[in-house]
Amino acid sequence: MEDEFEGKFIALEGPDGCGKSTQAKLLSEWLESEGYDVKVTREPTENPTGKVLRDALREKKDLPIEAEALLFACDRLVHVSNVIKPNLEVGKIIVTERYVHSSLAYQTARGLSRDWVEEINKFAIEPDFTIFIDVPPQVGFKRVGSSGEADTFEQDLELQKRVREIYKDLAEEGNIPQIDGTKSPKEVHERVKDEIDRFLHA
């Protein structure tokens, strides 16, 4: 979907436990200090569609992978319509934790075709800038476990290895900056900030 908006749309992507939430918070604080109006959001969302999806994942319901992918796409459609597009139209910078690349990584890692995943997400507004925060699966598992937020899609180490490789392939393909998420939050933030600063002033 091609649209022109007053605002800018930034997506933070990466495997589970890479530190997206921390970096979204730090990035929004820095952007606000620079005078920008910022909206931080995430997927799955806090909307009713996101709650259904989160509950299904948390309760480990036996969903076909196609149904899970469609739930993610449904939640994303609500996200785009109710949060992303309206905020971009009034000139805000949107920072989202996860977006379409997450569906491409997780759902193709579980056996769905990339073409099909792209097709059910073709409504999605393209981010103006995406950053991939990379951590090895073992690091991500340790972080997720310590935070007590491990959901069904965060349990399988082999899956996470496949997910990471797909993310890296997508980053290479899309010329997306890759940042080492094993560094301290402050060090990662400095890298994220540098990338965003260059993007905003290009």
Automatic annotation (TrEMBL):
Record's GO cellular component terms: cytoplasm
GO BP term, pick one: dTDP biosynthetic process
Record-annotated membrane-spanning stretches: none
Matching SUPFAM superfamilies: P-loop containing nucleoside triphosphate hydrolases
Highest taxon above the source species: Archaea
GO MF term (any one): dTMP kinase activity
Keywords, sorted A to Z: ATP-binding, Kinase, Nucleotide biosynthesis, Nucleotide-binding, Transferase
Domain Thymidylate kinase-like: start-end pairs: 12-191
Protein EC: 2.7.4.9
Residues annotated as binding ATP: 14-21
Catalytic activity: dTMP + ATP = dTDP + ADP
InterPro entries: P-loop_NTPase (IPR027417), Thymidylate_kin-like_dom (IPR039430), Thymidylate_kin_CS (IPR018095), Thymidylate_kinase (IPR018094)
NCBIfam families in UniProt: DTMP_kinase
Family to which the UniProt record says this protein belongs: Belongs to the thymidylate kinase family.
Name of the molecule in the record: Probable thymidylate kinase
Organism from which the protein derives: candidate division MSBL1 archaeon SCGC-AAA259O05
Gene: tmk
